[in-house]
Write a structure and sequence with these properties.
Strand order of the largest sheet: 3-2-1-4-5-11-10
CATH topology of the largest domain: Rossmann fold
CATH class of the largest domain: Alpha Beta
Distance between the termini: 25 Å
CATH superfamily of the largest domain: Vaccinia Virus protein VP39
Strand content: 25-35%
Shape: globular
Oligomer: single chain
Number of strands: 11
Length: 246
Amino acid sequence: MADFSEISSFYDLMTGYSRRLINDFGVIKHLVEKFNIKKALDAGCGSGIHTIILSKIGVDVLGFDAAKEMLDLARTNALKEGIQPQFEHEYFETIPEEWWGNYDAIFCMANSIAGVVNEQRLSLAMKSFQRALKPGGRAILQLLNTAWFRNNDQRIIKVSSEDNFTFVRFFDFDKGDTRLNVVVIEHDMGKVTHKFITSPIMAMNAEMLENAAKSAGFSQSEFFSDLVLTRPLDRDSRDIVAVLTK
């Protein structure tokens, strides 16, 4: 499993947590209303932003992540917002049996699913998600369209600055390997230092997801270019949004 726990202390700065908390609220609320979601899992919840939004909307939500450092951050963020949703240390592939059949939706956002690294783990994750959903429930996945970045020779995902930090997120592409990298550059009183973090990910496309979902027992797979689900997926989209129905 890809692990970016090393940058947990920088994660919210890098991803613009405060802005995303505002900007993502409307999108998540739209999905909750569209699919009548009352109870949900936030898979790969990271620092808890979507768990927090779902909880504020009124959804009974449980967030889980493989990185304990991120879960500590998520709990702190939730307390700052005056809420205490449930957070658990768990992996995509091993959702516990007591969760099976309990959820209207599973949210797996921000390219988290790519952390499964290989097709075997993707298959296990899809089976695990399918088991956790109620009949007719949906898994909503958001990931980077790695094929677009590779085909367009675009290694840079995003460069951002916050406070005295600059963050550079970029891919390394090899024949059989894709890595997601982060360089954290700190400027302090004229001194510049940096930290480099790298992790393998699975370069995924819609066909891979559809095949894994079908094998796992999902009855329908739909793909979009945006989270409000208005634009069908096209090859030039930088994002893939999958809605998988049990």
